[in-house]
Amino acid sequence: MIQFTSIAQMLQGTDGLPLWEAILESDCRSQGISRETSLERMSRLLQAMEDARRDYDPQQRSASGLVGGDGGRMARYGEGDTLCGPFFTEVMACALTMGECNACMKRIVAAPTAGACGVLPAVLLPYARHFGASREELIRALYVASGFGMILAARASISGAEGGCQAEIGSASAMAAPAVVYLQGGTPEQMAHSCAMAVKNLLGLVCDPVGGLVEVPCVKRNVIGAMNALSAAQMALAGITSRIPPDQVLDAMAEVGRALPRSLRETGTGGLAATPFARERFPREL
């Protein structure tokens, strides 16, 4: 989507534009499309996130029977006096909802992947309801997220098979954090530090789907990715920085991904996928 190859370059290459708009302009140049077309496409992605949340059916279960209903359970729990409060509880419910929609073969937005589809909407949609962000602001936040996401993809990875779950949930979390910083009026530098801290917090997260399905533990990891994004965003907004420069954090993420054994990179043969429960439920040679 963009031509930036580093976070530092992206922050320096705005030509005086807000960061979201610099990313938009780069998208237009790289794809040879108009500003209106780019905005319309991003608006459709936001609409798809909203539609997936609206159309969630808490009674539906995935074909394996492993996933379904937890988004509804969390939403019902949120009607009472919750441990984490209404905003965070809604974030958790939305993350579960999106992950379950994916497992139940509903239409979702891979942001950046299907397995990590719950993180970004779980942060943005409840934020809009609780803090009053407009659709225009959410679309701009999606541009911010996409800019950091494309650098993550180019400099490290967004593939669980290549870099473990740090590359999927970790990347999604590192996209959502700067998006929230933007919505809160933070600076591009704070966005960059929130991205770096979100990556660091999930560095080394393995990809170990039970039965090779993007269900367990993937759906619940979307919750952790969303909560991690909010934590990283709030730290950055408080003036806390990543001591390690953001681009170096992404390079470390790439190195860790390459170092992970194959069994912990989406093969379904290590970690939780190799537990007695998983072997009994999905018997096969490991």
Descriptive notes:
With 286 residues, the chain is mainly alpha-helical. It has a single domain (7-12, 19-281), classed as 2-methylcitrate dehydratase PrpD (Orthogonal Bundle). Helix content is 60%, strand content 0%. The protein has 13 helices and no strands. The protein has helices at 7-12, 19-31, 35-54, 70-77, 85-103, 119-131, 135-155, 160-163, 169-183, 188-201, 218-237, 246-259, 276-281. It is globular and about 60 Å long.
What are the SSEs and their pairings?
Elements: H1 7-12, H2 19-31, H3 35-54, H4 70-77, H5 85-103, H6 119-131, H7 135-155, H8 160-163, H9 169-183, H10 188-201, H11 218-237, H12 246-259, H13 276-281
Overall helicity: 55-70%
Oligomer: single chain
DSSP strand count: 0
| SS field, number of helical segments | 13
Q: Report, as a whole number of angstroms, the end-to-end distance.
A: 38 Å
Mean pLDDT over all positions: 96
Radius of gyration: 18 Å
H-E string: HHHHHHHHHHHHH
Uncertain residue ranges: none
Please indicate the percent range of residues in DSSP E strands (runs of 2 or more).
Answer: under 5%
* CATH class wording: Mainly Alpha
The total number of structural domains is: 1
Largest sheet: none
Strand pairing plus helix content: what structural class? mainly alpha
User: What name does CATH use for the topology?
Assistant: 2-methylcitrate dehydratase PrpD
The assigned CATH architecture is Orthogonal Bundle
Shape: globular
